């Protein structure tokens, strides 16, 4: 009995020590405090900004081909959409915007036609996507300043109406018929408008500063390489009527080349709640070189083999491609920007 009583006392004492240790591990007030900390607010890792812009822009375009010149100067009113995604954890961002001219006016000179007149139509269209990274960031109170680099892509179509280039619509002999009474060739015609597109690489630097009451941001980008393609409002080959045959340009003048240039933008703004109001300016420039390609059809007259004044034997059609170097090519576009955007 004494051994049983002693063992029982030792067991009770051990359970008491264990209960104290367990109570120390399960500290209920601390558990409640840890659970409540989950409700504390956390800073977001991502920010989104979307908005619209208006670009009052002025542009010019100069093309030199075969000694002819094509010059245009215009004023365009452009509506633009804007989107930006900021990754606060890595100090990087993705920015995209695109625009299209709502109204365009100006004047042009085309020495190949020759002609000159007012620009009342045409288009300016573009899309830009940039990825930016800012390794240099300073933050103090409400002030944040960042500086870094950007790499991006730019599509730019700058095509003010510089008149239309007329040419013969001839792709093969089936597009030509001959008069049985005169032997002359009969064919249809078509025309092309100025339509130049740019696909460009952008490399540059960007910086921004937010002081709470107002902000300022800017970027400067080089365009080290750009592909240029499209058609020009030019008929380069004058129609030649040699009596027994005629030579005529039988398609549009296409343009293929490469270029380089630069782009810059500066914006200053203020903020109201999560709304941003900014104004600033933007400028783009491109210089290029390349080749103009066009086709010439040489068409012989029909013949009267039996001298009965009926031209019963059709003539022939020969198509020849020609390539000419672009003497000069440059484009400018610059103007004032106004923006309204919202953060979310």
From TrEMBL:
InterPro entries: OMP_A26_sf. Residues 1-23 form the signal peptide. The lineage of its organism: Bacteria, Pseudomonadati, Pseudomonadota, Alphaproteobacteria, Hyphomicrobiales. This is Porin. Keywords: Signal. The keyword Signal applies.
């Amino acid at each position: 009995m004494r051994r049983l009583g002693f063992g029982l006392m030792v067991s009770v004492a051990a359970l008491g020590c264990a209960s104290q240790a367990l109570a120390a591990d399960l500290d209920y007030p601390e558990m409640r405090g840890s659970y409540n900390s989950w409700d504390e607010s956390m800073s977001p890792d991502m920010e989104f900004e979307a908005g619209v812009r208006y670009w009052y822009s002025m542009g010019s375009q100069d093309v030199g081909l075969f000694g002819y010149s094509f010059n245009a100067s215009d004023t365009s009113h452009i509506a633009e959409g804007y989107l930006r995604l900021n990754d606060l954890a890595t100090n990087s961002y993705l920015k995209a915007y695109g625009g299209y001219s709502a109204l365009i006016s100006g004047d042009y000179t085309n020495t190949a036609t020759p002609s000159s007149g007012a620009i009342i139509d045409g288009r300016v269209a573009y899309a830009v996507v940039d990825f930016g990274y800012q390794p240099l960031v300073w933050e103090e109170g409400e002030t944040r300043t960042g500086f870094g680099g950007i790499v991006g892509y730019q599509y730019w179509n700058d095509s003010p109406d510089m008149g239309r280039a007329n040419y013969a619509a001839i792709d093969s002999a089936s597009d030509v018929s001959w008069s049985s009474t005169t032997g002359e060739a009969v064919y249809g015609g078509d025309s092309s408008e100025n339509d130049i597109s740019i696909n460009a690489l952008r490399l540059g630097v960007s910086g921004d500063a937010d002081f709470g009451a107002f902000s300022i941001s800017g970027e400067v980008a080089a365009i080290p390489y750009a592909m240029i393609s499209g058609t020009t409002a030019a008929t380069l080959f004058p129609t030649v009527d040699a009596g027994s045959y005629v030579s005529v340009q039988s398609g549009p003048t296409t343009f293929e080349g490469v270029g380089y240039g630069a782009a810059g933008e500066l914006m200053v703004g203020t903020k109201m709640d999560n709304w941003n109001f900014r104004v600033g300016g933007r400028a783009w420039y491109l210089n290029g070189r390349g080749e103009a390609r066009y086709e010439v059809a040489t068409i012989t007259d029909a013949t009267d083999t039996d001298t009965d004044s009926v031209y019963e034997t059709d003539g022939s059609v020969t198509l020849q491609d020609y390539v000419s170097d672009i003497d000069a090519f440059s484009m400018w576009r610059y103007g004032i920007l106004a923006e309204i955007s919202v953060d979310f």
